[in-house]
Amino acid sequence: MRVAIIGDGRVARALRGRLEAAGHEVVLADLPDVEQAVRSADVVILDIPYHRYSELPAAPFTNKVTVDAINYDPDQDGSLPELEQVRATTELLARHLPGARIVKALNTLPLLTLSDIGPFRGDVPRPAVPIAGNEPGAKAVVAELLADLGFDPVDAGSLGDSWRLQPGMPVFGLLLDLDDVRARLALSS
Ligand SMILES: NC(=O)c1ccc[n+]([C@@H]2O[C@H](COP(=O)([O-])OP(=O)(O)OC[C@H]3O[C@@H](n4cnc5c(N)ncnc54)[C@H](OP(=O)(O)O)[C@@H]3O)[C@@H](O)[C@H]2O)c1
Fold it and tell me: Which atom of ligand 1 is found nearest the CA of 69?
């Protein structure tokens, strides 16, 4: 797949290595190259600070499968009063990019896990990754991409349910197998 990663920071670079090792074509795009990178991509992965999502141009994202790998971090992003309207941070992103086929994924993984190059070997349990989205077709594309990277995707419901993937929740920041992810999603409240 042609994958555009928006952001050129630590997470974007770690993911690029992993995606390229799995045979995907990757472009990293900072502003002002976002528009062209998104238009030519099959899948877009957002790896920018949360408070900057409103800088993204909405039009090129129309019909694009878009992975929201962003976490809201109050220390870095500051206080955002608009977050009081929603439970899942991705809901504000979805309002800003109304045409995008958004799937919340990859935000739960520790940076070191994303940095490992290549798929995991058969003798190591595949880490499971929860994904949430409103559209089964978009989720299927992201699930295929995650499987290529050596992860087991786990359906965690709709975008509205994606607060279960956010910092502080039981699945966040840990390397877990399929059963663990399912059990911890069920624990979230
Ligand atoms: N374990 C983890 O740490 C982890 C795992 C998954 C996801 N995440 C999430 O991934 C995101 C990125 O984290 P990071 O550590 O890679 O951050 P980072 O090192 O600070 O890099 C952020 C990058 O995004 C660029 N950027 C900012 N606004 C942009 C915009 N509107 N359009 C295009 N590019 C933009 C920045 O460019 P400039 O410097 O030019 O502004 C910078 O290259 C965060 O939301 C983080 O929560 C973190």
Answer: 7
